[in-house]
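User: I'm writing a tutorial on reading structure tokens. Could you give me a worked example: one chain, its sequence, then its tokens, then a sentence or two explaining what the tokens reveal?
Assistant: Sure. Here is the example chain.
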Amino acid sequence: MQRILALATVTASAVAPGMATGQATEFGVPQATEVAQPPNAMGPSAPIAASETDFGVEGASDRRDPTKLALARALDERMTVWRSPHGRRVYVRSCRQAPGIQGGCRARIVALVQLLVDVGRERGVDPFLLAAMALRESGLNPYALGGAGERGIVQLHPRGVGSRVRFVRSESYRRSCRRRADSCQREVVDAGARLLARAMHSCDSVVEALGAYNGGECRETEYGHRILEERAGLVRLAKASPLETAHLVD
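And here are its predicted structure tokens:
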């Protein structure tokens, strides 16, 4: 069964419209400086500007990582519910009430961006797609609780892959994670990324793979389309000019 490439590396380089990375049967993270587009996910690509001064990403190498800068910028915008004329931001309640985290909501966003990009690259899954899933599943809230007991930013089921994830299984462990900026989400995102990567190997399209992630079988669903729409929105936010995102510098 044909496997579909659904990976993205966002950079400051110009992108040719409709440009694809690698072959359809490859699942390695692209080395080319471009944005790969899942089928029907978004229109033609455009340059995404990124600058070291756009966002306070930790570490010298990370400050030069255009994918992390672009995703951080997009999530910062996406999690903002109001901004004053002077640039003061108000984030969504679940993020601004993050207890005990030095740096508050922005620190959480930066920490989650680090692991979304790192895990995405390790597992061969588009970090922007993972971020879109996290937004739709939990609103990027590590402590969101699903109707069937799902936990974490990608809402792992406690009787599925979540049964092997400590954050899903242990309330005492979750309490201990509340003072960490990343809220111990690496194992959560890794489990979700592995599940999605397996679905992408088995299904004929990205939207079908998302259906398998959510419902267990390769089929096109409204869930899959919503995730791709969210991803397209994040890419649009990431394309904002550095001048428009100067407020991200503390």
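What the tokens reveal: Residues 1-54, 245-250 have pLDDT under 50 and may be disordered. The longest strand covers residues 80-83.
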